[in-house]
Amino acid sequence: MKKKIQSKLLQWFEKTKRDLPWRKTRDPYAIWVSEIMLQQTQVATVIPYYQKFLKTFPTIRSLARADLSKVLKVWEGLGYYSRARNLHRAAKTILNHFDGKIPHNLKDLLSLPGVGRYTAGAILSIAFNQEVPILDGNVKRVLSRLFAMTGVAKKTENLLWKYSASLIPEGYAGSFNQALMDLGATICTPKNPLCLRCPLNKLCKAYRIRKPEHFPFKNPKKRIPHIEAVAAVILKDGHVLLNQRPVKGFLGGLWEFPNWPVEGKKDLIEYLKLKVKSELGLRVKGKVPLGTFQQTYSHFKLTLHVFYCQYFGSRRTTRWVAINDLDQLAMSRIDRRIAKMVSGER
DNA sequence: AATACGGGGCT
DNA sequence: AGCCCAGTATT
Hints:
Layout: H1 2-16, H2 28-37, H3 43-56, H4 60-65, H5 68-75, H6 82-97, H7 106-110, H8 117-127, H9 137-146, H10 154-167, H11 173-186, H12 205-208, E1 226-236, E2 239-241, E3 243-244, E4 255-256, E5 259-261, H13 268-280, E6 282-296, E7 301-314, E8 320-322, H14 333-343
Parallel strand pairs: 1-7
Antiparallel strand pairs: 1-2, 1-5, 2-8, 3-4, 6-7
Helix pairs in contact: 1-11, 2-3, 2-8, 8-11, 9-10, 9-11
This protein binds a DNA duplex (11 and 11 nucleotides) through helix 2, helix 3, helix 6, helix 8 and helix 9.
């Protein structure tokens, strides 16, 4: 059974493996970067970011020496910005404590921020061909179907890791682990899996009972709250007022137009004026609606009402940014859309 | 064990 | 509109 799985899968992989940028290199740094970017992010989304990131930061040293603001700017739009922050921190650690080389043992890799069990296994198997298992969404789906495993509790998770480890063929860890992921991504898909083309269909328990989509067991998802907020584009001599978010937490380190959540049904313009005064110490006039923007995040949905304001007077003025420089700062998707309108791009 | 953490591709 | 994505860190 095990030998059959190994040979079938490796053979299929050699024939049909995807042509991906990070499969053209043996540089552990490049593979590390790709693995961080691929966390919870689809391959097609990652590719252009991967190219640009490696062009901008070709080595660990260049990344470690860069300013975080520049790293965030290159990462802009990819999401989960703590990944960029952790990558940057880890590069410094590698330079200072690991002789500038990616560690090739589990313990040291796991000590790096942003590197968990999956990523450590991916780096060790793909970059160094060590027989270390991986378990991502693809592998979970493939193995849970192959063995018709029920439940997603801790116990099942541990069992999946054990299966993943036990299946690795000696000397072929990198190819085999990538083959498992390719199979999950292209054949053993969440919906409408292409079982007829699957190299493992004769061995697959879920296929035998004709219920591949019953695995893996999905836990019920909870609804996410809907937040409403107002934002101000405050103009003054070709500049706008921006706020930089705290480095830790949601959209950490990114720049944004000042904004405040709205509770209940308020007069939006009155509320905005109040907040601008109390929070920014600014007086503004105008308050022309610029638009309403929607953005769905992983844990809430945002509706943002944006208003143009004219600077009128203030007790303190800080963080004015020239409109022409808006494209230099890292912003989240929703603020970038506002900034483009302000700059006159559409 | 549950939650925070982005944004987009696909149905 | 909902699901899912080459997960990790924190609580």
